[in-house]
Design goal:
CATH class of the largest domain: Mainly Beta
Low-confidence stretches: 1-9
Largest sheet: 6 strands, antiparallel
CATH topology of the largest domain: Tachylectin-2, Chain A
Distance between the termini: 36 Å
Shape: globular
Number of helices: 1
Strand order of the largest sheet: 1-31-30-29-28-35
CATH superfamily of the largest domain: Glycosyl hydrolase domain, family 43
Strand content: over 45%
Number of strands: 36
Number of domains: 2
């Protein structure tokens, strides 16, 4: 549950200490959706949507980073960029990376045109063994647009998996009649090249149990765990002032080529998380990254050197109709030194861990404030934010009384983990240093984290 007060007036210019340091951001300017995560030959590769030319959304490129350990990341050259005269002239939108016949292949959404004239096609690029060089398919798009019978131009964000000897492909879409709602489409192929439309894979009403599921679904992701299958979609209302709402999950199974499942709720209980991407690593873990949006007025955003970030890598598990997340244990390697109660103010690159009581923990610079406290006799956790840019917000997520809570603060970016639930938000600090306090400091451990791990 989220409560938000109106944001205050614009600030004159964005300070540099808002930029996250141990999270992935662009070299400069804008990033959004994570794309194509894969664990290959002992290295994690992660791609993402980027506009390297301005601190705002623009025709997307694919940025690329890689890591041996999910902590230290190396930047690589741009993997994909829009090209005039091609089906991606107005953007290389989201997709996935798969190994097809022993070779890396990116499947992505190529876009030409805008608004009602926009064409969304499924495109392909083949990569070198080290994933550093990519060649677009000279034959053009695999799917030049949606099937005629769909009646909708929304046809984006391919996600592939192999089902026996055949490949399956999912695309996000939406309906056009009645109360519009999201749906996922399915295609099938014997070789990853020739695709046949197989109809609607899954759809759900606009609202379930008070949760708005939007008019359009983006970035479908599928994960199997034992006898259960989870489908994750990102919900959008295209004409709304803030169209990118949240990501939701469903848990069920695939029967005769269609998904049948029940809602598993929000993947994140904050106000900036969107478009998660999933992969399975060599250890069999399902890993997840999401896009952390900003909560700033446009005129402030225009002064920012880095807009948007990716969350820390999270482990996703499926069980008892729930999707649970926790930060990967490798993140403990970020810890540099404990922060004591009497220490001077520190840079906002921190991890907090413990069991907050009613009075909770506070991170503040005397102007902006982040507070985490227990409520309902410890059965829930309340996260409160107040700063001069994003305004005042409060969020609630579940918590088993006494269980450990972990909080990551990195520049303005905040991630909270409690009882398998996650919450992502922003706190725009007025000062470059913050203080951490708790009435019972014995209930709290604080570490300064390494802010120089993305190079």
């Amino acid at each position: 549950m989220t409560h938000r007060a109106p944001a205050p007036a614009d600030v004159a210019a964005a300070p540099g200490h808002w930029r996250p340091r141990y999270h992935i951001t662009g070299v400069r300017n804008w990033i959004n959706d994570p794309n194509g995560p894969i664990h290959l030959d002992g290295r994690y590769h992660l791609f993402f949507q980027a506009n390297p030319h301005a601190p705002a959304w623009g025709p997307p490129h694919w940025g690329h980073v890689s890591s041996p350990d999910l902590v230290h990341w190396t930047r690589h050259r741009t993997a994909l960029a829009p090209e005039n005269g091609r089906p991606d002239a107005d953007g290389c939108w989201s997709g996935c990376l798969r190994i097809i016949d022993g070779r890396p292949v990116i499947y992505y959404t190529g876009v030409v045109g805008e608004d009602d004239d926009r064409v969304e096609s499924v495109c392909r690029a083949r990569g070198s063994a080290d994933l550093l060089t990519w060649e677009k398919d000279p034959a053009g798009p695999l799917l030049p647009g949606p099937p005629t019978e769909l009646g909708s131009g929304f046809h984006r964000d391919p996600f592939l998996w192999q089902d026996g000897s055949r490949w399956q492909l999912l695309l996000g879409s939406g309906t056009t009649a009645g109360e519009r709602h999201g749906q996922v489409l399915r295609y099938e192929s014997p070789d990853g090249s020739q695709w046949r439309y197989r109809g609607v894979f899954f759809a759900a009403p606009r609202r379930i149990d008070g949760l708005d599921l939007g008019e359009l679904w983006e970035c479908p992701q599928l994960v199997a765990s034992g006898s259960s299958t989870a489908l994750v979609v990102s919900c959008q209302v295209p004409d709304a002032p803030r169209p990118l709402m949240h990501a939701v999950g469903f848990v069920g199974s695939i029967v005769d080529g269609r998904f049948q499942g029940a809602p598993a709720g929000l993947l994140d209980h904050g106000d900036v998380f969107y478009a998660p991407a999933l992969t399975t690593d060599a250890a069999g873990r399902t890993l997840l990254w999401g896009w952390a949006q900003e909560v700033v007025p446009p005129s402030t955003q225009a002064t920012m050197g880095h807009v948007g970030a990716l969350t820390v890598p999270r482990r996703l598990t499926v069980g008892d109709g729930r999707l649970e997340q926790e930060p990967v244990p490798e993140l403990a390697a970020l810890r540099l030194a404990p922060v004591g109660a009497a220490d001077a103010p520190v840079e906002p690159a921190l991890e907090l861990a413990g069991a907050p009581v009613d009075d909770g923990w506070t991170v503040t610079d005397d102007v902006a404030r982040l507070r985490i406290r227990a409520a309902d006799s410890g059965g829930s956790l309340v996260v409160e934010v107040a700063d001069p840019v994003g305004g005042e917000r409060a969020f609630t997520l579940r918590r088993a009384a006494g269980n450990q809570v972990r909080v990551f603060v990195d520049g303005s970016l905040v991630e909270v983990f409690s009882d398998g639930a996650a919450l992502t938000t922003r706190t725009y600090w007025a000062r470059p240093r913050v203080r951490v306090s708790a009435p019972r400091r014995s209930d709290l451990r604080v570490w300064q984290l390494d802010g120089a791990v993305v190079r």
